[in-house]
Write a structure and sequence with these properties.
homodimer; Jelly Rolls; 4-stranded antiparallel β-sheet; 9 helices; 48% helix; DNA-binding; RmlC-like_jellyroll (chains A, B); transferase (chains A, B)
DNA sequence: ACTGACTCTTGCCCTACAGCAATACCTTGA
DNA sequence: TCAAGGTATTGCTGTAGGGCAAGAGTCAGT
């Protein structure tokens, strides 16, 4: 399957879109290969693109005042990922985007993307869907973690994303759970 | 200013909308008066409406496993407020909606609202705006609170929403900051 | 204006998690 | 294949905030 075929499949799983319509704008999405640990966006830069992950894995994370990393989201294969707030507001990003593994992505510029959102109904719908899901994911994570201990949060993660501990370094899992890697290491013993 | 005039002003502050266009759908929004502390939605119910706050103040909050309340959002005058995740997914809400003060709201049913989103371009735009802002607000709150002490979070709140401590009972401010009211009481002494 | 009921404050103790340091364990590249 | 640098584990200790209980303050309804 070519990169663009993979993207078309994604669109078709969410909305109606014929290959003919797709071919009119598919070239806005260009293939980009990224190395493990490579940064695609740094805190402070304005985000001017949206990314569709073909293979590999990205993470969006923030660095706190004392240098602690906090991972907001892991973008796996067949997901869009970007610094949404920076993309929407056009302001410097407060988060970094990094490839956790060697990855392949399709990149579309901000202007092209929003042009499509306004002119192609199916892309408009995809964008509405991205926004809704981003919001829902963010809310669920807050509420599901609220009032829970580190161990309970870990169990929640394992039940929702089994296998994540094998694929992603503990350091990053800890930063996703909002705990230090020391604590993660300790509570893993209690599982 | 009548309730509908107030809503029209809000729309016009966000997008172009003539009084004539507005009058075609304004009756979908019906006035509702709510008493202090009255619940407009309970956890477990499916949310079937969107609310525009004319006067007063609503809060959206969740009750944790041990009964601790966690306030996600205060909807002040001239804001839309609802349980967005429940409205979008059509699933039981995980949050409650309560009037903090005696309030007046304009209520629109879910079906009418989404009908307008699909048929009236300016409402479509308002909805996109609501989603974007909901997401951005949620993210900023997470990142701004990340790695900060309770005292720092309180200072952040006071600088972003001065006067909130006078208008809203401490209990609720504490639940917004993610701390107990004991702790809030103690850190207020350190201001 | 009075009373009963919430709401806020504060002393005390407790617990979950942070953070350092030392050790053991993987990876990756020449 | 081996060395080097990152990553994970674990003992020890420190601390922010939780939670109870008792008291003070405040507000709403009759």
């Amino acid at each position: 399957m070519t990169p663009h075929e993979q993207l078309l499949s994604y669109f078709q799983s969410k909305t109606h879109l014929s290959p003919e319509e797709f071919s009119e704008f598919k070239d806005f999405f260009v293939l980009k290969k990224v190395k493990r640990n490579e940064l695609l966006l740094r805190e402070g830069e304005v985000c001017t693109f949206n990314l569709f992950v073909l293979s590999g894995l990205l993470r969006m994370y923030h660095i706190g005042p004392e240098g602690q990393e906090f991972t907001r989201y892991f973008a796996f294969e067949n997901k869009f990922g970007t610094s949404l707030t920076s993309l929407i507001e056009g302001m410097p990003s407060i988060e970094n985007i990094q490839a956790v593994e060697k990855s392949e992505v399709l990149k579309i510029s901000k202007v092209d993307f929003f042009k499509l959102v306004e002119t192609v109904p199916s892309v408009n719908l995809i964008y509405k869907n991205i926004l809704e899901q981003a919001y829902i994911t963010s809310q669920k994570r807050i509420y599901d973690f609220q009032g829970k201990t580190a161990l309970e949060r870990l169990k929640w993660l394992l039940s929702h994303q089994p296998g994540i501990l094998n694929r992603i370094p503990s350091r990053l899992v800890a930063s996703y759970l909002g705990i230090t890697s020391y604590t993660l290491s300790r509570i893993k013993a209690e599982l």
